[in-house]
Design a protein that fits this description.
By secondary structure, this protein is of the alpha/beta class. It has three domains: 12-84 and 168-201 and 333-364, 2-Layer Sandwich (Nucleotidyltransferase, domain 5), CATH 3.30.420.40; 86-166, Dna Ligase, domain 1 (2-Layer Sandwich); 228-331, ATPase, nucleotide binding domain (Nucleotidyltransferase, domain 5), CATH 3.30.420.40. Helix content is 36%, strand content 25%. The chain is built from eleven helices and 13 strands. It has helices at 53-69, 98-112, 142-148, 167-179, 190-198, 236-247, 251-261, 272-296, 318-326, 346-352, 357-364; strands at residues 12-16, 20-29, 32-42, 76-81, 87-94, 120-126, 157-166, 183-189, 205-211, 216-222, 225-232, 305-309, 330-332. β1 and β2 form a beta hairpin. α6 (236-247) packs antiparallel against α8 (272-296). The longest helix has 25 residues, at 272-296.
Protein backbone atom coordinates (compact mmCIF):
# COMPACT_ATOMS: atom_id res chain seq x y z
CA UNK A 1 0.00 0.00 0.00
CA UNK A 2 1.30 3.42 -0.91
CA UNK A 3 1.41 5.89 1.95
CA UNK A 4 -0.21 8.47 -0.31
CA UNK A 5 -1.86 7.33 -3.53
CA UNK A 6 -3.07 9.05 -6.67
CA UNK A 7 -5.85 6.74 -7.80
CA UNK A 8 -8.99 7.99 -9.51
CA UNK A 9 -11.65 5.66 -8.09
CA UNK A 10 -14.19 6.64 -5.45
CA UNK A 11 -13.38 6.31 -1.78
CA UNK A 12 -14.88 6.43 1.67
CA UNK A 13 -13.45 9.20 3.79
CA UNK A 14 -13.02 7.78 7.30
CA UNK A 15 -11.89 9.93 10.21
CA UNK A 16 -11.04 8.06 13.40
CA UNK A 17 -11.01 10.82 16.00
CA UNK A 18 -10.34 10.74 19.71
CA UNK A 19 -14.02 10.75 20.64
CA UNK A 20 -15.86 9.48 17.56
CA UNK A 21 -15.59 7.88 14.14
CA UNK A 22 -16.91 9.77 11.10
CA UNK A 23 -17.54 8.44 7.61
CA UNK A 24 -18.51 10.14 4.33
CA UNK A 25 -19.13 8.78 0.85
CA UNK A 26 -19.34 10.99 -2.24
CA UNK A 27 -20.00 10.26 -5.91
CA UNK A 28 -18.29 12.16 -8.69
CA UNK A 29 -21.04 14.23 -10.30
CA UNK A 30 -19.42 16.14 -13.15
CA UNK A 31 -16.32 16.93 -11.14
CA UNK A 32 -18.31 17.80 -8.01
CA UNK A 33 -18.66 15.59 -4.90
CA UNK A 34 -22.28 14.50 -4.45
CA UNK A 35 -23.15 13.15 -1.01
CA UNK A 36 -24.22 9.52 -1.03
CA UNK A 37 -24.17 8.76 2.68
CA UNK A 38 -22.54 9.71 5.95
CA UNK A 39 -22.45 8.43 9.49
CA UNK A 40 -20.79 8.83 12.84
CA UNK A 41 -20.62 7.07 16.14
CA UNK A 42 -19.52 8.44 19.50
CA UNK A 43 -16.67 6.35 20.82
CA UNK A 44 -13.35 7.11 22.53
CA UNK A 45 -11.21 5.84 19.69
CA UNK A 46 -7.72 7.35 19.76
CA UNK A 47 -6.02 4.93 17.41
CA UNK A 48 -2.60 5.86 18.76
CA UNK A 49 -3.48 4.55 22.22
CA UNK A 50 -4.95 1.20 21.18
CA UNK A 51 -2.02 -1.02 22.02
CA UNK A 52 -3.75 -4.36 22.53
CA UNK A 53 -5.14 -6.53 19.68
CA UNK A 54 -8.47 -6.69 21.53
CA UNK A 55 -8.86 -2.89 21.56
CA UNK A 56 -7.94 -2.66 17.90
CA UNK A 57 -10.45 -5.42 17.06
CA UNK A 58 -13.18 -3.50 18.90
CA UNK A 59 -12.40 -0.37 16.90
CA UNK A 60 -12.44 -2.40 13.69
CA UNK A 61 -15.89 -3.69 14.62
CA UNK A 62 -17.05 -0.12 15.23
CA UNK A 63 -15.82 0.96 11.80
CA UNK A 64 -17.37 -2.07 10.10
CA UNK A 65 -20.74 -1.57 11.81
CA UNK A 66 -20.72 2.14 10.97
CA UNK A 67 -20.11 1.42 7.27
CA UNK A 68 -22.91 -1.15 7.28
CA UNK A 69 -25.41 1.09 9.08
CA UNK A 70 -24.55 3.98 6.77
CA UNK A 71 -25.23 1.73 3.75
CA UNK A 72 -22.02 2.58 1.99
CA UNK A 73 -21.69 1.39 -1.59
CA UNK A 74 -17.91 1.10 -1.84
CA UNK A 75 -15.24 -0.45 0.37
CA UNK A 76 -12.12 1.51 -0.58
CA UNK A 77 -10.97 3.90 2.14
CA UNK A 78 -8.85 7.00 2.54
CA UNK A 79 -8.14 7.66 6.20
CA UNK A 80 -6.35 10.45 8.04
CA UNK A 81 -3.26 10.41 10.18
CA UNK A 82 -3.32 12.90 13.06
CA UNK A 83 -1.14 15.88 12.21
CA UNK A 84 0.78 15.57 15.49
CA UNK A 85 1.80 11.99 14.58
CA UNK A 86 3.33 13.01 11.24
CA UNK A 87 6.61 14.79 10.58
CA UNK A 88 6.84 17.10 7.59
CA UNK A 89 9.21 19.65 6.15
CA UNK A 90 9.77 21.56 2.92
CA UNK A 91 13.28 21.37 1.48
CA UNK A 92 14.97 22.76 -1.60
CA UNK A 93 16.84 20.34 -3.84
CA UNK A 94 18.71 20.86 -7.11
CA UNK A 95 17.12 19.44 -10.25
CA UNK A 96 18.36 15.89 -10.67
CA UNK A 97 17.52 12.63 -12.45
CA UNK A 98 14.55 10.73 -11.04
CA UNK A 99 16.75 7.82 -10.03
CA UNK A 100 18.72 10.07 -7.68
CA UNK A 101 15.82 11.96 -6.14
CA UNK A 102 14.64 9.28 -3.73
CA UNK A 103 18.11 8.98 -2.16
CA UNK A 104 18.29 12.77 -1.82
CA UNK A 105 14.87 12.85 -0.16
CA UNK A 106 15.87 10.18 2.35
CA UNK A 107 19.03 12.10 3.18
CA UNK A 108 17.08 15.29 3.82
CA UNK A 109 14.49 13.41 5.88
CA UNK A 110 17.18 12.30 8.32
CA UNK A 111 17.72 15.96 9.22
CA UNK A 112 14.21 16.58 10.60
CA UNK A 113 12.73 13.19 11.53
CA UNK A 114 13.56 12.49 15.21
CA UNK A 115 13.40 8.73 14.69
CA UNK A 116 15.48 6.24 12.69
CA UNK A 117 14.45 6.61 9.05
CA UNK A 118 14.16 2.81 8.83
CA UNK A 119 11.23 3.00 11.26
CA UNK A 120 9.31 5.53 9.15
CA UNK A 121 7.09 5.42 6.09
CA UNK A 122 8.49 8.22 3.95
CA UNK A 123 6.75 10.03 1.14
CA UNK A 124 7.32 13.24 -0.77
CA UNK A 125 5.91 15.50 -3.43
CA UNK A 126 7.29 18.24 -5.63
CA UNK A 127 5.48 21.48 -4.85
CA UNK A 128 3.98 23.54 -7.60
CA UNK A 129 2.54 27.02 -7.15
CA UNK A 130 -1.11 26.72 -6.14
CA UNK A 131 -1.02 22.94 -5.80
CA UNK A 132 -2.63 20.90 -3.05
CA UNK A 133 -2.65 17.33 -1.84
CA UNK A 134 0.15 14.76 -1.98
CA UNK A 135 1.74 13.02 -4.92
CA UNK A 136 3.04 9.50 -4.59
CA UNK A 137 6.79 9.98 -4.24
CA UNK A 138 7.65 6.85 -6.19
CA UNK A 139 5.39 7.69 -9.15
CA UNK A 140 5.48 11.39 -10.00
CA UNK A 141 2.87 12.57 -12.46
CA UNK A 142 3.85 13.87 -15.90
CA UNK A 143 3.98 17.49 -14.81
CA UNK A 144 6.51 16.57 -12.13
CA UNK A 145 8.61 14.32 -14.35
CA UNK A 146 9.74 17.26 -16.48
CA UNK A 147 11.07 19.04 -13.41
CA UNK A 148 12.66 15.91 -11.95
CA UNK A 149 14.33 15.06 -15.20
CA UNK A 150 16.09 18.40 -15.41
CA UNK A 151 14.22 20.23 -18.15
CA UNK A 152 16.38 23.26 -18.98
CA UNK A 153 13.27 25.41 -19.12
CA UNK A 154 12.28 24.39 -15.59
CA UNK A 155 13.32 25.90 -12.25
CA UNK A 156 16.87 25.60 -10.96
CA UNK A 157 15.68 24.08 -7.68
CA UNK A 158 12.87 21.82 -6.59
CA UNK A 159 10.73 22.59 -3.55
CA UNK A 160 9.89 19.22 -2.04
CA UNK A 161 7.42 18.48 0.74
CA UNK A 162 8.67 15.54 2.80
CA UNK A 163 6.22 13.62 4.96
CA UNK A 164 7.05 10.78 7.32
CA UNK A 165 4.95 8.65 9.68
CA UNK A 166 6.01 5.86 12.06
CA UNK A 167 5.63 2.43 10.48
CA UNK A 168 3.95 1.01 13.59
CA UNK A 169 1.13 3.58 13.35
CA UNK A 170 0.63 3.00 9.62
CA UNK A 171 0.56 -0.76 10.25
CA UNK A 172 -2.10 -0.25 12.93
CA UNK A 173 -4.37 1.57 10.47
CA UNK A 174 -3.88 -1.14 7.86
CA UNK A 175 -4.80 -3.90 10.31
CA UNK A 176 -7.89 -2.15 11.68
CA UNK A 177 -9.41 -1.59 8.24
CA UNK A 178 -8.48 -5.11 7.15
CA UNK A 179 -10.37 -6.58 10.11
CA UNK A 180 -13.25 -4.19 9.35
CA UNK A 181 -13.51 -5.69 5.86
CA UNK A 182 -12.51 -2.44 4.13
CA UNK A 183 -9.62 -1.73 1.79
CA UNK A 184 -7.36 1.02 3.07
CA UNK A 185 -6.00 2.48 -0.15
CA UNK A 186 -4.06 5.38 1.29
CA UNK A 187 -3.44 7.70 4.22
CA UNK A 188 -2.94 11.44 4.33
CA UNK A 189 -2.54 13.94 7.11
CA UNK A 190 -5.57 15.67 8.62
CA UNK A 191 -4.20 19.07 7.62
CA UNK A 192 -4.50 18.32 3.89
CA UNK A 193 -8.04 17.01 4.32
CA UNK A 194 -9.01 20.13 6.27
CA UNK A 195 -7.50 22.41 3.62
CA UNK A 196 -9.45 20.62 0.90
CA UNK A 197 -12.83 20.80 2.60
CA UNK A 198 -12.53 24.24 4.22
CA UNK A 199 -10.43 26.20 1.71
CA UNK A 200 -10.79 24.24 -1.51
CA UNK A 201 -7.43 25.18 -2.97
CA UNK A 202 -7.91 28.89 -2.29
CA UNK A 203 -4.68 30.82 -2.75
CA UNK A 204 -3.40 33.00 0.06
CA UNK A 205 -2.32 32.56 3.68
CA UNK A 206 -4.86 31.15 6.13
CA UNK A 207 -4.97 29.54 9.54
CA UNK A 208 -7.16 26.53 10.36
CA UNK A 209 -7.89 25.92 14.05
CA UNK A 210 -9.39 22.46 14.56
CA UNK A 211 -10.80 22.25 18.10
CA UNK A 212 -11.56 18.64 18.90
CA UNK A 213 -12.67 16.88 22.04
CA UNK A 214 -9.24 16.47 23.64
CA UNK A 215 -6.83 18.42 21.43
CA UNK A 216 -6.59 21.49 19.22
CA UNK A 217 -4.52 21.53 16.04
CA UNK A 218 -3.41 24.82 14.52
CA UNK A 219 -2.33 24.85 10.87
CA UNK A 220 -0.97 27.64 8.69
CA UNK A 221 -1.85 27.03 5.02
CA UNK A 222 -0.01 28.89 2.28
CA UNK A 223 -1.34 28.53 -1.26
CA UNK A 224 -3.06 25.23 -0.38
CA UNK A 225 -0.01 23.74 1.35
CA UNK A 226 -0.08 23.23 5.15
CA UNK A 227 3.30 24.60 6.20
CA UNK A 228 3.07 24.78 10.01
CA UNK A 229 1.22 22.35 12.29
CA UNK A 230 1.07 22.48 16.07
CA UNK A 231 -1.17 20.63 18.50
CA UNK A 232 -1.96 21.18 22.17
CA UNK A 233 -3.83 18.92 24.58
CA UNK A 234 -6.69 21.35 25.09
CA UNK A 235 -10.15 20.83 23.61
CA UNK A 236 -13.85 20.68 24.32
CA UNK A 237 -13.45 18.25 27.19
CA UNK A 238 -11.05 20.68 28.87
CA UNK A 239 -13.79 23.32 28.85
CA UNK A 240 -16.35 20.89 30.26
CA UNK A 241 -14.00 19.81 33.07
CA UNK A 242 -13.22 23.44 33.95
CA UNK A 243 -16.94 24.19 34.26
CA UNK A 244 -17.56 21.04 36.31
CA UNK A 245 -14.78 21.96 38.73
CA UNK A 246 -15.79 25.62 39.06
CA UNK A 247 -19.46 24.86 39.74
CA UNK A 248 -18.97 21.53 41.46
CA UNK A 249 -21.37 19.73 39.10
CA UNK A 250 -21.09 16.48 37.16
CA UNK A 251 -19.74 16.34 33.60
CA UNK A 252 -23.16 15.91 32.02
CA UNK A 253 -24.51 19.09 33.58
CA UNK A 254 -21.26 20.93 32.85
CA UNK A 255 -21.55 19.93 29.20
CA UNK A 256 -25.01 21.45 29.07
CA UNK A 257 -23.72 24.65 30.69
CA UNK A 258 -21.02 24.79 28.04
CA UNK A 259 -23.51 24.44 25.20
CA UNK A 260 -25.84 27.07 26.67
CA UNK A 261 -23.30 29.66 27.83
CA UNK A 262 -20.08 29.23 25.86
CA UNK A 263 -18.22 32.54 25.72
CA UNK A 264 -21.43 34.44 26.46
CA UNK A 265 -22.02 36.83 29.32
CA UNK A 266 -24.88 34.78 30.77
CA UNK A 267 -23.96 32.67 33.75
CA UNK A 268 -25.29 31.14 36.92
CA UNK A 269 -25.19 34.50 38.71
CA UNK A 270 -21.66 34.06 39.98
CA UNK A 271 -19.65 34.72 36.84
CA UNK A 272 -17.76 31.47 37.38
CA UNK A 273 -18.76 29.71 34.18
CA UNK A 274 -17.53 32.36 31.72
CA UNK A 275 -14.25 32.73 33.64
CA UNK A 276 -13.71 28.97 33.65
CA UNK A 277 -14.36 28.78 29.92
CA UNK A 278 -12.23 31.83 29.19
CA UNK A 279 -9.27 30.39 31.09
CA UNK A 280 -9.23 27.30 28.87
CA UNK A 281 -9.91 29.16 25.63
CA UNK A 282 -7.06 31.56 26.39
CA UNK A 283 -4.69 28.59 26.32
CA UNK A 284 -5.75 28.10 22.71
CA UNK A 285 -5.48 31.84 22.02
CA UNK A 286 -1.92 31.89 23.33
CA UNK A 287 -0.97 28.95 21.11
CA UNK A 288 -2.56 30.64 18.08
CA UNK A 289 -0.51 33.77 18.78
CA UNK A 290 2.63 31.67 19.10
CA UNK A 291 2.01 30.04 15.71
CA UNK A 292 1.24 33.42 14.14
CA UNK A 293 4.56 34.78 15.40
CA UNK A 294 6.33 31.64 14.23
CA UNK A 295 4.96 32.15 10.74
CA UNK A 296 5.57 35.91 10.78
CA UNK A 297 9.27 35.29 11.45
CA UNK A 298 9.46 33.17 8.29
CA UNK A 299 7.42 35.20 5.80
CA UNK A 300 6.26 38.69 4.96
CA UNK A 301 2.71 37.99 3.78
CA UNK A 302 0.27 38.12 6.73
CA UNK A 303 -2.35 35.54 7.64
CA UNK A 304 -5.62 36.69 6.09
CA UNK A 305 -8.20 34.88 8.21
CA UNK A 306 -8.76 32.11 10.75
CA UNK A 307 -11.12 29.24 9.95
CA UNK A 308 -12.51 27.15 12.82
CA UNK A 309 -13.31 23.44 12.61
CA UNK A 310 -14.00 20.62 15.04
CA UNK A 311 -17.01 19.92 17.22
CA UNK A 312 -15.98 22.45 19.86
CA UNK A 313 -15.86 25.33 17.35
CA UNK A 314 -19.61 25.75 17.93
CA UNK A 315 -19.00 27.14 21.43
CA UNK A 316 -21.36 30.10 21.78
CA UNK A 317 -19.72 33.40 20.70
CA UNK A 318 -16.34 31.74 20.15
CA UNK A 319 -15.67 33.29 16.68
CA UNK A 320 -16.47 36.74 18.04
CA UNK A 321 -14.27 36.23 21.09
CA UNK A 322 -11.31 35.02 19.03
CA UNK A 323 -11.77 37.77 16.47
CA UNK A 324 -11.47 40.39 19.22
CA UNK A 325 -8.56 38.64 20.94
CA UNK A 326 -6.60 38.20 17.70
CA UNK A 327 -7.79 41.35 15.89
CA UNK A 328 -8.50 39.21 12.84
CA UNK A 329 -11.39 37.72 10.87
CA UNK A 330 -12.47 34.46 12.49
CA UNK A 331 -15.37 32.28 11.38
CA UNK A 332 -16.59 28.69 11.49
CA UNK A 333 -15.78 26.88 8.27
CA UNK A 334 -18.39 25.10 6.16
CA UNK A 335 -16.88 21.87 4.79
CA UNK A 336 -20.12 21.10 2.88
CA UNK A 337 -19.86 24.32 0.83
CA UNK A 338 -18.08 22.57 -2.06
CA UNK A 339 -20.32 19.51 -2.13
CA UNK A 340 -23.76 18.61 -3.48
CA UNK A 341 -26.50 17.27 -1.22
CA UNK A 342 -30.32 17.32 -0.84
CA UNK A 343 -31.49 20.69 0.48
CA UNK A 344 -33.72 19.06 3.08
CA UNK A 345 -30.54 17.75 4.76
CA UNK A 346 -29.01 21.20 5.13
CA UNK A 347 -30.10 21.86 8.77
CA UNK A 348 -28.67 18.53 9.91
CA UNK A 349 -25.49 18.86 7.86
CA UNK A 350 -24.87 22.42 9.06
CA UNK A 351 -25.08 21.22 12.65
CA UNK A 352 -22.47 18.48 12.22
CA UNK A 353 -20.33 20.16 9.55
CA UNK A 354 -17.32 21.28 11.65
CA UNK A 355 -17.02 17.80 13.16
CA UNK A 356 -16.99 16.23 9.69
CA UNK A 357 -14.40 18.55 8.11
CA UNK A 358 -11.64 15.91 7.99
CA UNK A 359 -13.88 13.08 6.75
CA UNK A 360 -15.38 15.35 4.08
CA UNK A 361 -11.93 16.39 2.89
CA UNK A 362 -10.87 12.76 2.65
CA UNK A 363 -13.97 11.78 0.68
CA UNK A 364 -13.47 14.71 -1.73
CA UNK A 365 -9.88 13.86 -2.47
CA UNK A 366 -10.17 11.96 -5.77
CA UNK A 367 -13.07 14.08 -7.02
CA UNK A 368 -11.89 17.64 -6.47
CA UNK A 369 -8.65 18.26 -8.32
CA UNK A 370 -6.38 21.26 -7.68
Amino acid sequence: MAFFSSGKAGYLGVDIGTSSVKLVEFRNEGGHPKLITYGFVERPASILKLDSPQEQAQLATTVRDLAKQSRTTIDRVIAALPSFAVFSSIVSLPVMPKKDLFAAVRWEAKKFVPMPIEEMVLDWRILKEGSSGILNGTKPDKSSQAKVGGDERGPKNLRVLLTAAPKNIVKRYIEIFKVAGLKLDSLETESFALERSLLGGETGVFMIVDIGAVATTITVVVNSIPLINRSIDVGGESVTKAIANSLNVDMQRAEQFKRDVGMGIQDSGTGQVPRAVEFVINSIVNEIRYVMNLYKNQAEKPIEKVVLAGGSSFLVNLPEYLSTALNMRVFIGDPWARTMYPLDLKPALDEIGPRFAVAIGLGMREIVTP
